[in-house]
Amino acid sequence: MADNCFHCGQTIGKERISFDSKEFCCNGCKSVYEILNINNLGNFYELNKNSGIRPDESSTQFDYLDTPEIFERITDFSEGDTTLITFKIPVIHCSSCIWLLESLHTLNANIKYSQVHFTKKTLQVSFNHNELKLSELAKFLTNLGYKPVISLETADRKEEKLDKSLLIKLAVAGFAFGNGMFFSYPEYAMEFFGYTDFWMEKYKNLFRFIMFLLATPVVFYSASDYFKSAIYGLKNKIVNIDVPIVLGILVLYGRSIYEVMTDYGPGYFDTLCGLLFFMLLGKTFQKRTYNALSYDRDYKSFYPIAVTKIDFNGKQENILLSDLKIGDRIMVRNQEIIPVDAILINGDGNIDNSFITGESAAVSKKPGDKIFAGGKQIGSILELEVIKNVDQSYLTQLWNKEAFRKHETGLDTLTNTISKYFTFIILGITLMAGIYWARIDFEKMFQVVSAILIVACPCALALSAPFTFGHIMRILGRNKFYVKDTLTIEKLAKVSTLVFDKTGTITHSKKSNISYEGAKIQEFDLKNIKTLLKNSNHPLSKSLYEFIGVEDEYFPVENFADTPGKGYTSEVRGTKYKIGSASFSSQTSKNLETAVYISKNEEFLGKFIFKNEYRENLGQLFTHLDEYRIHILSGDNESEKKKLEELIPHIDAMAFNQDPESKLNYIKTLQDKGEKVAMLGDGLNDAGALKQSNVGIAVADDTNSFTPSSDVIMNGAKIPLLDRYINLSKDAITIVKITFVISFLYNIIGLTYAVMGQMSPLFAAILMPISSITVVAFTTVATWLRSTKYFSING
């Protein structure tokens, strides 16, 4: 019997569906399989086995998309019977997804074409809106397992300002380098092989002039960022790595012009173009971060674009969230985010505030209670009255607080620290050598000075960090640890204190450890209880439904009565049951215990106790982190304190009942003591702490879902490997330092010969790229070897 779903590849739980000699984990996966086969698209599975996406079974409403104002806001183009729209679909992950989504026209005749932009995780669809409503298109995609994300952020439809200037600069340098080598061939043939030719001799000046024309835009356009950075650094009294690089570029360029003008030689235009090409290639490689992930998200990422407004006659109307006013009444359905601070008018509120507070338990609300934006309703439909506009709600104000914003620069990096001393040393050597040779041979003095500045250009030094950190970022990302930039790797290597949020970070966000205490419950009663649990939307009821291991049978439910915040009673097969809190079953609960109490015909049977389920292998992780100070923060109560002390024997401190600002202040206090802090959290309640920390690590079981602004986005299942990520970051610093040593050895040897007057500028120009190639080759091999120590080759 198959253990994994044929469609999505996920482990099959208690719900197992057999169809067409295949096993599926849910009806959604089976339905998608049927759709694909009916439409002769069965080769979807041949492209990539188990590449399907499990359809979202939540009752997502898309009807609001057909409202004219909303339709106009989110569509790209609409005229005649044709509409063009771009959906954000984060779950696109492989070639099979692309193939299926670009074959939508074969599944629905009203879809004209569809095109995937893989890196942006977007799908552009052209469809006949007269025959296929926008809401129906969204539902169609959801049923296939590709639920579109439609929020305030995606609705803004801001054009991504992709900075293409770096690629253009790289292209210019590459063009000049390639053609420059071609035009330099006659000079190399004459210089190294003694080959002479009448036509080569006659047109060498033309070739040299063409080389000058090719190199000039490379120096003043392709290298412009280095000039700007050097000037910016000097203005701020900082000697960064770009200062000696610019000096080397200018000397190489100036010396080449001098040689060509005086017919002394061909110059080094080709070498200059080649060096800048490889340096820009390193910079491009460094910037290849994970654009599909967003490290700077805000509340717009999960706020809905529209809400259902209700008038006093009960008439419903879908309106833009931005048009919502104080006093309006809105409808919030099961699993929907509450977008504004409001008062509950009708319905039984069962609010999951874990995203804001970190508190894992749902909060019951009754009419008249205040509900904050950012909570999620779990259960029946609510009617709310708006008391604050979107931009004035608690959630928005919390996000916009100055304390929740991180301000930093990348000036204090390892490379720039070394370059401060490197530049002054090179200038000092150049000055002394110039004075010495001016007294002995004034003509040779220019050759010596040129050779020193050319050979000492820290190009290899500048390449080492981008290539090393670029490789490390790629390796970490392949292992689901997505680093925002190279500076983060340096900061991660310096961390001395690790602060973990509890709920959803070191515990599973959607799992609980359930145990039972009480009299044995017979199978007859268990089946009846499971039937009752199926009728409840409360998260504890859902968890308990999955936990009870009897066959799922549905029996008629009679006299169902729900008491908000307490529990519910009902009769199944002639037996009356009570399911709910301790007081609801006339029992006394233990302090800080989360439990569901069961009574049968007014007789207490027992209770199911819920405890957080911690992620696997945490004990081993914390053993490996014994060199760090460990702190735990939680919005929950102290019920798990003893468990945490057992899990982390060397824990430094724990703090419970922490609100967002308390977490931020906790981090700040540690930093005031000189600690370098990395914070791991999963929700908005951790946003301030993540930004305040030296390294903010947002934990998400689905890295495409909403995560707070951070330096790193980490897959929750990979938390037990945290020590490996940190150790690899430390190894990256060691590799960079070794490449610095290699670069310095080249410089020391080259400088020795240059100062002694035994190195020509031509040989210096050849030695410089050799050192760069050596550094790039070493860092590529070294990072690969170190990564295999911590991770498998395939990630």
Automatic annotation (TrEMBL):
Keyword annotations? Cell membrane, Hydrolase, Ion transport, Magnesium, Membrane, Metal-binding, Phosphoprotein, Translocase, Transmembrane, Transmembrane helix, Transport
Q: Where in the cell is it found?
A: Cell membrane
Protein EC: 3.6.3.-
GO biological process entries:
copper ion homeostasis
**An annotated Gene Ontology molecular function:** copper ion binding
- InterPro entries membership: ATPase-cat-bd, ATPase_P-typ_cyto_dom_N, ATPase_P-typ_P_site, ATPase_P-typ_TM_dom_sf, ATPase_P-typ_transduc_dom_A_sf, ATPase_P-type_domA, HAD-like_sf, HAD_sf
Membrane topology of the entry: Multi-pass membrane protein
Check the record and name the PROSITE patterns matching this protein: ATPASE_E1_E2
Residue ranges of the P-type ATPase A domain?
307-399
Q: Which residues cross the membrane?
A: 166-186, 206-227, 239-258, 264-281, 421-439, 445-469, 734-756, 762-785
| Domain Putative metal-binding stretches | 4-73
Q: Which Gene3D superfamilies match?
A: 3.30.70.100, Calcium-transporting ATPase, cytoplasmic domain N, Calcium-transporting ATPase, cytoplasmic transduction domain A, HAD superfamily/HAD-like
Instruction: Note the superkingdom of the native organism.
Output: Bacteria
One GO cellular-component annotation of the UniProt record comes to: plasma membrane
**Primary localization:** membrane
UniProt similarity note: Belongs to the cation transport ATPase (P-type) (TC 3.A.3) family. Type IB subfamily.
PANTHER family given for it?
ATP7, ISOFORM B, CATION-TRANSPORTING P-TYPE ATPASE-RELATED
Instruction: State what protein this is by name.
Output: Copper-exporting P-type ATPase A
The organism named in the record is Chryseobacterium taklimakanense
